[in-house]
Every structure is written in C-alpha cells, then in structure tokens.
Amino acid sequence: MAAGKELTPSDYIQHHLTFFSRPVGEGGFWTLNVDSLVTAAILGLVGLGLIWWVVRGATSGVPNKRQAFVELLIEFIDEQAKGIFHHGDRNRFLAPAALTVFVWVVLMNAMDFLPADWVALVTRPFAPEGFRIVPTADVNTTFALSLSVWLLMIYFAIAAKGLGGWIHELFCAPFGAHPLLWPANFLFNLVEYISKPLSHSLRLFGNMYAGEILFLLLWMWAATGLVGTFFGVLLGLGWAIFHILIVLLQAYIFMMLTIVYIAMAHEHH
C-alpha cells in the first residue's frame, strides 16, 4: 500500500489484485504476469526438491514419517489412476504426471494462506504493487495447465488411434459415419474439445480467486480497530481451516480430470 494514503476497501482489494506484469515486444499485445510465472516456477522446483529429498533418504526397512507420508500419497494417486486408466502401463506416464499435477497445484493453492500485506512488503522492492502470490488465482496459469493437459489428450488420442483414426472419429462419432452426419459429428466433438480446457481451468481459477478475495476482505476488516481485529482474525482463522479443504479438493479435482481426459483419449468409438 502506498505510504500516507488511506485506501478505500475497493482500492485495497484492487491494489492486491494487481499483477506485476511486463509486456513482451512492441505494443504490449503479449504480457507476462511475472509474479505468477516466478512463483509457479519456484513452487515447481520446491515440489520436485521435496520428492527428491524423500526418495534420496528412502530405506527398504521401516520408513520414517516423511517417507511414509509420501508413500501414502503415491499409493493414493496410483489407486486413482488404476481405477480409471485401463489402456496400458499407467506407471509409464499417467501416474507420475498425476502426482506432479497434484503436488504442484497443492503448493500453488497453498500460497493463499500467506497474508497479502506481508507478501507485498517483502516483494515491493522489485515489484511496486507487490506480488500476487497465488498462481492458480491467475486465469493465465490455470489455462496454461489445462491447455497442457488438452494437448496431451490430443497426443495420446492420435498415438492410440493413429492420425487417420482420430480424424475419422471426429467426423463419424457419435452419430454415425454417413456423410450427411459429418457436420453434426464434428460440431459435437468440437464443443467437447473446447469445453474441456474451459471447465478444467475455470473451476480451479474460480475457487482460488474467490478464496483470495475472501482473505483480502478478512485482512482488511482486521485492520479497522480492536473489534475488527478480533473478528477479522477469528473469521480469518476459521476460513483458513476451511480453505485447507478447498486447497486439497481443487488440486484433487484437477488431477482427476487430468487422468479422466487422458484415459478418454485412448477410448475408441
């Protein structure tokens, strides 16, 4: 927040919802949200580092607590993949990809627990408005994740059916192979292909963005005086406890949809 200036509630929220953006090239048509990119990249490395740290210290005997936790996590995700994917070796790609998606999205969602004013205070020396520290509250991040899954879905569909088989399916399923039905089939499949990345990304974005707004409202209330501080901290603590469920649930849903979409890509119609 700017020193010496009293911000209205609207100004306060808008201040913390401002990205640290930089245009790419002339005209600024392409703009990078540096805070989302940097935070997501750091958290990706943190996730890989944590898994590497646990694997490096793994033993064949009685596991320690961190090894037992990671083994339970891996077993849980593998069971989810096993129940949905029946088209080959899930451990070759799908289960590791699901584990990566889940851990990464959980870490990005969990940034919502950091107080926005503290983050702004630390990051303001190189970002005038401070960092927006929750990458999944940025629709660009969630769309990038969902489009990556979408491209993988198309890749596996072509790998499983061949390019000709995939194109044939676009025009001949689900209503039949008669030439008069090709436009209807193609439009039906087009809607499906467009809706998948939209729903995949907007579900995660909407939940995390709403959580970010609620935290900002509660932190703002906590700065309005003694009574406001008491109720703001009390409600903020309650929302933070409930938000743990949202952080984990949204990561789980995103991971499950990733498994489902890739499994569906292997199916023949």
What distance separates the N and C termini? 57 Å
**What is the strand tally?**
2
Instruction: Report the C-alpha radius of gyration, rounded.
Output: 22 Å
Number of domains: 1
Mean pLDDT: 87
Low-confidence sequence ranges: none
Task: Decide which structural class fits the backbone.
Answer: mainly alpha
| Beta-strand percent range | under 5%
What strand order characterises the main sheet?
1-2
Helical fraction equals over 70%
Largest beta-sheet details: 2 strands, antiparallel
The number of helical runs is: 8
Q: In one word, what is the shape?
A: globular
SSE ordering = HEEHHHHHHH
Summarize the structure.
By secondary structure, the protein is an all-alpha fold. It has one domain.
Overview of this protein structure:
The model has no long low-confidence stretch (mean pLDDT 87). The chain has one domain. A two-stranded antiparallel sheet has the order 1-2. The N and C termini lie far apart (57 Å). With 269 residues, it is mostly helical. It is built from 8 helices and 2 strands.
Features:
single chain; 269 residues; mainly alpha; 8 helices
List the helices and strands and how they pair.
Blueprint: H1 9-16, E1 21-24, E2 30-33, H2 34-56, H3 65-84, H4 94-110, H5 116-123, H6 139-172, H7 182-222, H8 226-265
Antiparallel strand pairs: 1-2
